[in-house]
Task: inverse folding
């Protein structure tokens, strides 16, 4: 398929620049793949579409302040790092800007010297391998010198960093939030559990793939950057029992969806463990595990839109997006949600 097959026009004013005060007051577009019916609701109404015996799978990753603004140790030239993935201990894979300054052996400092980073290597993807030096605990240093890595299309300052975290965020490691989960509150999750729906946690640390656009006209030539995941035995048991008993497995977000489809065998059974995934889901893919999907509205020509177009028909999804634009839904990370069943 061609990249141009996933293009749509979006008015700039529909790109949400800030989260709503009440997470549950985001709008919810409900799309039924069988009937092609569309309903317009609010996210608090999601509970009406979940059945006893279903399983909601959420991603409990936590966004770290991964954006670092610093300078060369020798000349003071400005440099920006974006932490992507911890390779081991104090060695990280990092996006750099400007790249021409990030040559092997060069040292950069952040927070007036609280943190130093030495370029060790350049990867085939153009990222850098960096060794950090500091006194104390890395996470505490990062809290002092790092900035929350909001997507480049958000131009408003985020006043509360917790609004770019899900209420169930637990394990540090992501450079972007699993945004479909931003609509949930603890109160809503309790209501969902009390209604007989199981909630299972997976962890997938969102990485560079969120920021990297598709540049190949033939989408099959696009390479996905790998991301780390963890699935517990408890989660595997919950999901597998849900499927055995005829319940639906509902992925909250494309990150949960990609993780479940990575670890699912051809019979739809998932297996616990750690690993990395570079799965690229686009139309033609046959889903093994996920029966329904909660997701936000995604950028034109993005891998996320391609995944959604694989879950539902591409033309139908573009028609749904056109209606969402007509109805003035808010798009992207801080925007409104869809439930595809």
Result:
């Amino acid at each position: 398929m061609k990249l141009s097959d996933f293009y749509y026009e979006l008015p700039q004013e529909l790109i949400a620049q800030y989260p709503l005060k009440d997470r549950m007051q985001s709008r919810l577009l409900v799309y039924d793949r069988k009937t092609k019916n569309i309903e317009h609701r609010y996210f608090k109404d999601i509970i009406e579409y979940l059945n006893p015996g279903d399983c909601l799978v959420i991603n409990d990753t936590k966004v770290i302040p991964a954006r670092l603004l610093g300078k060369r140790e020798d000349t003071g030239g400005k440099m920006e790092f974006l932490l992507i993935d911890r390779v081991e201990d104090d060695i990280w894979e990092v996006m750099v800007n400007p790249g021409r300054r990030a040559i092997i052996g060069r040292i950069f400092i952040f927070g007036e010297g609280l943190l130093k980073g030495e370029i060790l290597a350049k990867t085939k993807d153009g990222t850098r391998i960096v060794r950090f030096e500091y006194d104390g605990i890395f996470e505490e240093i990062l809290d002092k010198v790092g900035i929350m890595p909001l997507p480049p299309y958000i131009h408003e300052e985020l006043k509360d960093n917790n609004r770019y975290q899900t209420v169930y965020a637990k394990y540090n490691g992501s450079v972007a939030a699993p945004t479909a989960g931003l609509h949930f509150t603890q109160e809503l999750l309790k209501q969902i559990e009390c209604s007989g729906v199981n909630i299972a946690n997976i962890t997938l640390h969102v990485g560079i793939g969120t920021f990297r656009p598709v540049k190949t006209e033939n989408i099959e030539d696009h390479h996905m950057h790998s991301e780390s995941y963890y699935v517990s035995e408890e989660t595997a048991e919950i999901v597998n029992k849900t499927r055995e008993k005829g319940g639906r497995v509902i992925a909250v977000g494309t990150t949960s969806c990609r993780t479940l489809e990575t670890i699912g065998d051809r019979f739809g059974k998932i297996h616990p463990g750690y690993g990395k995934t570079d799965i690229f889901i686009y139309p033609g893919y046959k889903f093994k595990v996920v029966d329904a999907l909660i997701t936000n509205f995604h950028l034109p020509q993005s891998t996320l839109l391609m995944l959604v177009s694989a879950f539902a028909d591409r033309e139908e999804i573009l028609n749904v997006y056109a209606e969402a634009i007509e109805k003035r839904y808010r798009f992207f990370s801080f925007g409104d949600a869809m439930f595809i069943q």
